[in-house]
Amino acid sequence: MAPAQAQALPTGQENTIVPEAVRDGIDLQINGEHYRHTGDPQMPLLWYLRDVLRLTGTKYGGEHGESGADLVLLDGKAVSAITQTMAKLAGKQVVTVEGLAANDGTLHPLQQAFIDEDAIGCGYCTPGWLIAGVDLLKRKPHPGDDDIDRLPNLCRCGCQTRVRRAIKRAAGKAPQS
Amino acid sequence: MSGNGKTPNRIPLSRRRFLQVLAGTAGALVVGIRMAEAADAPLPPALVGDNFYGLGAYVRINADGSVLINARDPDTGTGVATSLPRIIADELDADWNRVSVILPGLGVSDDNGKPRWTYGRQVGGVGGSIPAAWNDLRQVGAVARWLLLQAAARRFGVRADQLRCAAGTVIASDGRRLSYGSLAEDASKIALPTRLPAPKEAANYQLIGKPAGDVDAHAIVTGQARFAIDHHYGDALVAVLVHCPWPDGTLERSDFADCLAVKGVVKVLQLRPEPGQPPGSTPIAPAVAVLAEDTWSALQGRRKLKLEWKPGASAAADSNTFEQTAGAALAGKTDPTTRVRDDGDVDAAGKKAARRLDATYFQPWLAHATAEPMNCLVRLDKDQASLVVPTQAPQQAWAVVHRLTGFAPARIDISVPRVGGGYGRRLDHDYVAEAVMLAQSVDRPVRLLWTREQDLAHDYYRSGCVHQLNAIIDRKRKLLGWNQRMASASALSHRGVPDNHLWTSELQADQLPAGLVPNYRSDWYGLESTIPRGPARGMPHLSNAFAVESFIDEIAHTMREDPLKTRLRILGEPRSLTLSAGRTLDTGRLLNVLKLVADRIEWKNWLRTVNGLGIACWHVDGAYVAHAIEVAMQGEKLVIQRVVCAVDVGRVINPRGLEGQVAGATLDALSTALNLAITFKDGQIQQHSYKDYPLASMAQLPDAVEVITVDDDRAPAGASFLAMPTAAPALANAVFRASAVRVRRLPLMKELLRLL
Question: Which neighbouring-strand residues pair with B177?
Fold first, then answer.
């Protein structure tokens, strides 16, 4: 829930009622839309996405993002959303799993490859794998096994061999930018 | 309730009884409702009793031809949300492209104050979903199809047996066609059959045995799939906890002031386990809860809590001491807690031994480490509760809510979206109790979230165990006797299970090589521990297969024999052996999976290759599995080069889903065997994050798992963890061939590096 701006102060607090100044918000783009965060600048991006915007595709994996379930693309690079405070994100572009498909619903080639290869266990960590994979395919349109080996994500269901196939299937098909 | 003034005229949440709600909508045939309405009429015998309730509300055919099918069991990643509806859809001859799958949540109605389970069995992730569905869900589809045929027969003016069905259409012999949608309304008025229609012949299956992708795949890859953790009620408070490091500890001193000063923090509350309640139905340990307007505020407040916990007696628990106690129990002359099996005369056989072989295997404690941490969303109104719960067993979750609230059975509404991993952790519902208790103390809904650290440090773990195995071999190299002694702390302690059944969570009386060795003894030594235990994926097969299938390799090595040949000799001629509880062991099927993996990995090169080849086989509740693994040692680096797994589960419902389950379970087992151990000192778990409990990285795991499935016409067995037990022993056996180091202690990597 985004704290309202310039809220009426609770009564009976101080004699001098000074309206709260409208704080300079943090402007950023998420999945191509403009947002202004006016809450706590120290709030991690993960909770902004999940609690404030209700973009719940990005998952909580741990306090340090160590499972990769909370990866997002920040200016095109995969980063853990829980390690990014909103204060550092002014003017940045964030893409979450919800923003990977085109506006007309056409899936990113890697999303389609995940479906085609059934690269899904319980599905909780899947958004993180997709973000890591999209990031990899941008850097290396035809990644080798060694490149795929370096993905940071964890999965207890054991979807790794199917993710590997999906990334290879999507190789060369991802948009370059 | 509704005391905060924000939503004074709160409309009770929908009961989500979609079938009941929509039953009156024009032109719909709803099977299940029809069954219930027919309760006053004389019922066909097969519909009475469990079967009748098992039919429940499952299929809805709309006038536009679209079909809704209910997947009753929670899908924790096992694919049952796809496979169960396909069983129904095939019997119904539905057009799969017109089918939408519904996750119905808990089905419960009020039977004079007692719960009546609308959908019968509702349990996920324990390997029983498909076998149970095969028995009752097929009938749902068959009955719906029968009703549609009767409706079409009246419309066409011909006999129903002159009609056939295909992909959502009834077709007459003269070519006339009627869609299911156009027949649904008529069909809904036809009386039920007096005898159950026979299920289809296998030759006519359209969906069963054909590959299908996960029904949730599109929603998952677009981030639209919502897990319990993603659900919300508008005015819910977020609750985060600090648990006491000791289940029996107490809060000695506390200062909540700094926490309460954090913007957004609303309340700080204490939780305590209820004395006398079994594990898994009450908080796992005393806890302090911070309730706040949003997650970030709650987590900040949590950091500001000043808490001093006083340890209880459990502060003495130490995993090293536990293992020493286990070793001492096995080394001593004391009687076992339970003599699980005693065939022939092991002592007499020992006197005839040409050779004896002994080995001891050590396996660590394990956590569940589900991807989605424990969480629960609960809203309590005056006399009803609505929850969203990531559970494998919604009926058990219901029991916890019912006990705490006293609400009438049908006034407890439990929604179960797709679950982010279960592995047995979500058969327990301590987190549900916590959320309900908190919601009872505040006048708002509560969204409970555990952190990753809590998830690892406050679990119902799998006990560590020690296996001491002794083989007696005669002059003709025949395995004459097998004496197995295992020590562990039962997962069933304090859960209302009689003492003489505590062993059942730890080993099986029928496990290999029982039944194949004339003199076979299996003893279990039960240990006490204050560290909580509970059901864990693949248990008890996981730990026993590692010890047994490693030991068979050691026997082969001692006899200077190819370990595949040793196994084939022990299994003997293909035959059917009767096991306990009416189960059978078909040694032919076991031999078959063993030979399949051996052929695929080119076992004939076993001696020649510089790489190590390892093999193992096992049977689980009428299903059969074998692994063959090839590894290379590159200095101290272990590279898993090939993994082949063959499974025989009888009839395969969804080959693609099965392949995913088998590959996934293989990787889970490899990850566990390579890296994972829970340790404790001073009663405190020493693993706090994935850094300390390192699930295998992409680089550590094989690039591929080659899955071979044997499809046959036997009733399907469960597969959710079938491929787990043999992965670790096949790996350890391969490592032995590659490095000459026999790993008898898990996790494997740590032990291998110690021994190299």
Answer: B171
Q: Is the pLDDT of residue B466 over 90?
A: yes
What is the reported pTM?
Answer: 0.92
The residue of chain A nearest to residue B234, with distances taken between CA atoms, is A1
Q: Is the confidence at residue B85, as pLDDT, over 80?
A: yes
Fold topology of B228-313+374-449: Aldehyde Oxidoreductase; domain 4 (3.30.365)
**Architecture, CATH, for domain B319-366+461-755:** 2-Layer Sandwich (3.30)
Note the ipTM here: 0.92
Domain assignments of chain B as residue spans, ordered by start: 9-212, 228-313+374-449, 319-366+461-755
Q: For the domain made up of B9-212, give the CATH fold.
A: Aldehyde Oxidoreductase; domain 4 (3.30.365)
CATH number at residue A149: 3.10.20.30
How many domains are there within chain A? Answer: 1
Torsion-angle region of residue B32: left (phi > 0), alpha (psi -120 to 50) or beta?
Answer: left
For the stretch B522-531, pLDDT in tens is 999 999 999 9
- Chosen from B237, B698, B700 to mutate, greatest number of chain A CBs within 10 A: B698
Residues of A with Cβ-Cβ distance to B456 under 8 angstroms: none
Pairing of strands B385-388, B412-415: parallel
Q: Which residue carries 């890296």 as its tokens?
A: B675
Does residue A21 belong to any structural domain of this protein?
no
**Residue pair B278/B495 in contact by the 8 Å Cβ criterion:** yes
pLDDT digits (tens, 9 = 90+) for B680-725: 999 999 999 999 999 999 999 999 999 999 988 898 999 989 999 9
| Cβ contact B419–A122 (<8 Å) | yes
Domain around A37: 27-170
User: Which residue bears the tokens 């009803």?
Assistant: B384
The pLDDT mean for chain A works out to 90
User: Are B222 and A69 in contact (CB < 8 Å)?
Assistant: no
What does each C-alpha distance from B511 to B113, B125, B352, B521, B719 come to in angstroms?
Answer: 42, 21, 25, 12, 17
Q: Mean pLDDT, to the nearest integer, of B645-659? A: 96
- Interatomic CA distance for residues B673 and B542, integer angstroms: 10
Stretch among B196-210, B389-403, B730-744 having the lowest mean pLDDT = B196-210
Q: Which pLDDT value is given to residue B196?
A: 77
Half-sphere exposure at residue B706, Cβ-oriented, CA atoms within 13 angstroms = 15
Is A65 part of any domain? Answer: yes
Using the predicted structure, report yes or no on whether residue B610 has a pLDDT greater than 90: no
Extract the tokens encoding B432: 């549900």
Q: What is the mean pLDDT of chain B?
A: 90
The answer to whether B708 and B646 are in contact (CB under 8 A) is yes
In this prediction, residue A1 carries a pLDDT of 43
Contact B420 A96 (CB under 8 A): no
What are residue B112's phi and psi, to 5 degrees?
50, 50
CB pairs under 8 A between A and B: 184
Contact indicator for A148, A167 with CB cutoff of 8 Å: yes
Q: Taking CB atoms and an 8 Å cutoff, what residues of chain A touch B660?
A: 118, 120-121, 159, 162
Closest approach of A65 to chain B, Cα-based (Å): 10
Mutate to test the interface with B, among A31, A42, A122 (most CBs of B within 10 A): A122
Query: Residue B21 pLDDT more than 70?
Result: no
Mean pLDDT for B558-580 is 94
Q: Indicate yes or no: CB of A57 within 8 angstroms of CB of B296.
A: no
> Residue A163 domain-assigned?
yes
Contact list in B for residue A2 (CB cut-off 8 A) is none
Helix (H, G, I), strand (E, B) or coil at B219: helix
Nearest to A160 among B217, B667, B691 (CB): B667
Q: What is the DSSP string of B492-511?
A: TTTTT--GGGGGGGT--TT-
User: CATH topology of B9-212 equal to that of B319-366+461-755?
Assistant: yes
On whether residue A7 sits in a domain, the answer given is no
Tokens of B330: 């096995």
Residue B25 clears pLDDT 80, i.e. is over it: no
